Structures
1.
Amino acid sequence: GESVGLHLPTLSVQEGDNSIINCAYSNSASDYFIWYKQESGKGPQFIIDIRSNMDKRQGQRVTVLLNKTVKHLSLQIAATQPGDSAVYFCAEIPNRDDKIIFGKGTRLHILP
Amino acid sequence: GAGVSQSPRYKVAKRGQDVALRCDPISGHVSLFWYQQALGQGPEFLTYFQNEAQLDKSGLPSDRFFAERPEGSVSTLKIQRTQQEDSAVYLCASSSQTGDSEQYFGPGTRLTVT
């Protein structure tokens, strides 16, 4: 069935290093992908999105890569900071459907 | 401007009680979504409104779950005869239009059923 999942439940990164969070999705018909950040006690916060007709999109310190051939999505965070500590979810909005399908999440730990 | 707000932030209910969770979306937002987030999991879709119309309720886990948005703004998610498996964070999100515009999430209501 439709699902979006992540390869690792936790990721520890040294402060200042780059972080890469990976995601595999199964619905090849999905048109739109989003990365969310969720801090403790808060709702998910939009980070960056990408449409299926793109393979890369950059934001401020973040880059999303989409590989439709292997149905893989990744989030790269440059110069990771303590404030980046959170759970990160990849998510998809299937074609012609508004609801968001979330993966299980990766917890990012920043080491001092 | 104000974001999406939800109340109460925390709710403890005894098994069998009914609960009502409120969502105040961003003013003017047409679309409103409810999600359920179990501990350690990603949010899962429950139901979707466009204005006052409930267009999709395919994610509601049972007929004990009921949502409404009578005037196209505030929404209430009601759970009747709560059970322990209903314990979760209930998230509300709103967006300004249909399609794939950004959904803004509230802080959620943490429901614990004892």
2.
Amino acid sequence: EVQLVESGGGLVQPGRSMKLSCAASGFTFSSFPMAWVRQAPTKGLEWVATISTSGGSTYYRDSVKGRFTISRDNAKSTLYLQMNSLRSEDTATYYCTRLNYHFDYWGQGVMVTVSS
Amino acid sequence: IMLTQSPATLSVTPGESISLSCRASQSISTNLHWYQQKPNESPRVLIKYASQSISGIPSRFSGSGSGTDFTLNINRVEPEDFSVYYCQQSNSWPLTFGSGTKLEIK
């Protein structure tokens, strides 16, 4: 059974940093690109970032470029999202997803609240 | 690529058959996928590549379309189907979602 379990969320002040993790199991992690998708409270879904199987290629939405870094550790079957210079508009539930051209598996999500 | 979903909200009675629309701002071939999100749950994929079924998804869900116009059909809506539906394109970066259609009980 595919499982994606996020951790690392919480309350953070504007301008500070936070790192999310996603522990994957139930599939060959190194064989799939992975992604983060977020959802602000009462809003729709928004793709954030994607990383290739090896980690050699990464893609970001414009609003997080230069502030967020997606990475992975295939030996640990873990996906990460380092978020720097956080803004109030980054407040959202962040979902770890497996990317199979579509998002075929989703974690339960982790809430990030950016507020002073 | 912008995806426009309509209607924003649809009120129906269980047992009705419905169609939800997703229109792309430019041609995306069949690189369009549909998701369902129930309250306080993570989204799940319903249909991939416009019309391909997903294992474990009830057969009352089907999709059609190509290019810029896509439709998600639900044949005889069940009580558990009342949720929000999103379309998403994988034709080009950035990956984008539609704003969603909320299916509610009339």
